[in-house]
Every structure is written in structure tokens, then in C-alpha cells.
Amino acid sequence: MFQPSPWRADFPAIDALQRQHQTYLDSAATTQKPQILLDALSHYYGHGAANVHRAQHLPGALATQAFERSREKVAGWLNAVDSQQIVFTHGATSALNLLAYGLEPLFEAGDEIAISALEHHANLLPWQQLAQRRGLKLVVLPLDSRGLIDLNIALQLIGPRTRVLAVSQLSNVLGAWQPLEPLLAHAQAQGALTVVDGAQGVVHGRHDVRQLGCDFYVFSSHKLYGPDGVGVLYGRSEALARLRHWQFGGEMVQIADYHSASFRPAPLGFEAGTPPIASVIGLGASLDYLAGLDAHAVAEHEAGLHRHLLRGLNDREGIRLLGQPQLALASFVVDGVHNADLAHMLTEQGIAVRAGHHCAMPLLKSLGLDGAIRVSLGLYNDSDDLQRFFEALDQALELLR
Ligand SMILES: Cc1ncc(COP(=O)(O)O)c(C=O)c1O
């Protein structure tokens, strides 16, 4: 049965891609953008760009107002207590690097950092590098057979030496919500700071950082139907106050002389230099767009398409799903067919899916794989997109087998 997307027409690029015979099924990598965002960018650049937080003139005041309004919208989106808990970074990756650098003074040799076995490189490598610099132990929490962090083992591995627990909310490979609440509560009871990589999770539903109870939460705007070049680091005020400053320059300083300086607290103390002004304003516009949608209808639509995707994959012989994806995406391999060959043939037929290790090389390796195909869905996808994908898949498999 045809399942249309009520929001497809809001995303002009989907039409443009279709005219180029492209079916976009790679939203977990980045999303297409709603018209409201294009309008916001065009308005900002078309009516006078200006730097923020420094100019007295009218364009500067307007840009600063719009920029700070976006901070408030992000705080509202996450249900943060205060917009001052929202630091703009250049993406989830830079937010996680900021944390791994900023928390470094809290560690002593022999302390531990806990991550999970499914982390994206962005939530693995900054901690791995920190562990190497300071002689720390990186503890990797294993997964159970469903691809979820194994709570029985994880709760034993997180102990009094754990200074930081950093885990993904929703895996970009396995598409499963992780059991964060018991993990975070246990880690905090042990005195650890908790970091949630919300890069994939933030896209689906509303997330309440207070309810989640984490100390830090990070995401990238471009996966949330916003512009690229901007990301968010949310922190509880007490947790942000523990971060050491990381980049130095304009607007983050309180007082500077030639031989010493003092620095502002979060958020501005962690936003050195000119921030991605247009992108921050654009993120605010995308959040307005998302806030105006019927969340229940969105969730139903995404769930319906995901069922269709899983059904189609499960119905075909020789296809092996990775884990037990719950929403938004599915990664798979095909017996006897290399994922790169299959991806190549799908690309030739105008199907935009991702192949490879998905920036989670250790996870793929632990599954005995060097890569997999990932199909991921956005608000704008409809069942015809999946139909085209399955037709292309069948043709490709016929030729490759
Ligand atoms: C789970 C997860 N974490 C972090 C990132 C990094 O995001 P970015 O490349 O936007 O910094 C990604 C991107 O794919 C991701 O899926």
C-alpha cells in the first residue's frame, strides 16, 4: 500500500533529486532541508549579515538577537533549564572533542573512561586519545545479542574509577535505542560524569535532557534537518563549570593582557571566534519547522516506513540484518556479495544508500564484517522510495550472484 509523506513537499531538494533520478535513503548521514530553513538563510544573508556579540550597530544587534533566540529554541527543544547551558560547536564531533579535552584535568593515571562497543568514531577516538595521553583505561561496554549495551555486564564494569561514561543514545549502525537511564544513573552514583551522543537519537522524537539525567548531550544540526557547520553541546551548569577552556580568541575572553588572560564561563567561553552565525539561525528555523509538525503523525510515518523496510529485507533470501533495528535505519549484508559491489550497483541505479564501516570500524570488526549497506529514512521518504530501492536491490543481486 502506498504510504505518502505529508511533509515531502516541504523539502525542495527531494523533488530536485527525483528529477536527477536519485532516491535519497541516507538521512542518518545528513538530512535534506525544509524550505523554511532555506528562507531563513536567504533572509539573513539577503538582509545584512553581521557579526554577533560585538557590534553596537543595528545589523549586529539583529544578528545577535536571532543567534541568541536559536540558543533558546535549542534549550527548549531539549528541555534544558537555561539557554546558557547550550554551547554551539561545529558539530557533534567537535562537541565530543571539546569534552575529551575539557575534562582532561579531572583525570588521574589509572582512572577509567567507559564507552560502548557500538560507538561512532566521534565518540571513541577523542576518549581513546585522552586515555593514551593520560595513562587512563578505556573500558568498552559489550553488547548483547540484540545489539544493546549489555546491562548485566556494563553495571559491573562501571565502578568508582570510572570518571566518564560516554555512550550513544541510538546507534548509527544498529538503529536501536540504548538502555541509557539505568546506565547513567549507575555511573552517576559512582561519581562519574555522563556524556550522551545524541547525534542519531535527537532526530527521532523529543528528548528531555533533564529526564534523561545526563551531564552532557551532544548533537549535530545537519542530521536534524538543520544546516551543517553547527552542533550543540548541552551541559548541566555544574558540569559545564568543570570544563577547561579549549579554543582561545575573540569573544571568549574576560580580560586579556600580553601575559595573562581570564575567560568567560559557558556558553560564550567555549565559542571562541566568529561562530557559524547563519547556521545557528538556520537551526532555529528548522526547530520551528519540527515543532510545528504533529509529532504523533511523524512517529507513525517513520514506524510504518521502517516496518516496510524490515519486511522487504527479511523477505529476501541471503540478507542478514545487523542487530535488531527499532527505527529509522537498517544495516545489512548479503551472503556471497561484497557490500561495496552492491553499493556500486545501487548507486548506478540512482539509489543513495551508505556502504562501508559507517565510522564504527571496531563494531563492524566485532561482527566479523568489513562493511555493510545502510538504508536510512527521513521525514520526506515515502513507500515509493523503498519500492525503488527494492527493485534496484533485486536487479543488483540478480547480477551479482
Ligand atoms: C552516532 C553518531 N555520533 C556522532 C556522529 C558525528 O557527527 P558529525 O559528523 O556531524 O560531527 C555521527 C555522524 O554520523 C553519528 O552517527
Automatic annotation (TrEMBL):
InterPro entries on file: Aminotrans_V_dom, Aminotrans_V_PyrdxlP_BS, Cys_dSase_SufS, PyrdxlP-dep_Trfase, PyrdxlP-dep_Trfase_major, PyrdxlP-dep_Trfase_small
Catalytic activity: (sulfur carrier)-H + L-cysteine = (sulfur carrier)-SH + L-alanine
EC number from the UniProt entry: 2.8.1.7
Keyword Transferase attached: yes
Record keyword Transmembrane present: no
Needed co-factor(s): pyridoxal 5'-phosphate
GO annotation terms (biological process): cysteine metabolic process
Keywords from the UniProt entry: Pyridoxal phosphate, Transferase
One GO MF term: cysteine desulfurase activity
Residues annotated as domain Aminotransferase class V: 23-389
Family: Belongs to the class-V pyridoxal-phosphate-dependent aminotransferase family. Csd subfamily.
Listed name of the protein: cysteine desulfurase
Source organism per UniProt: Pseudomonas wadenswilerensis
Gene it is expressed from: csdA
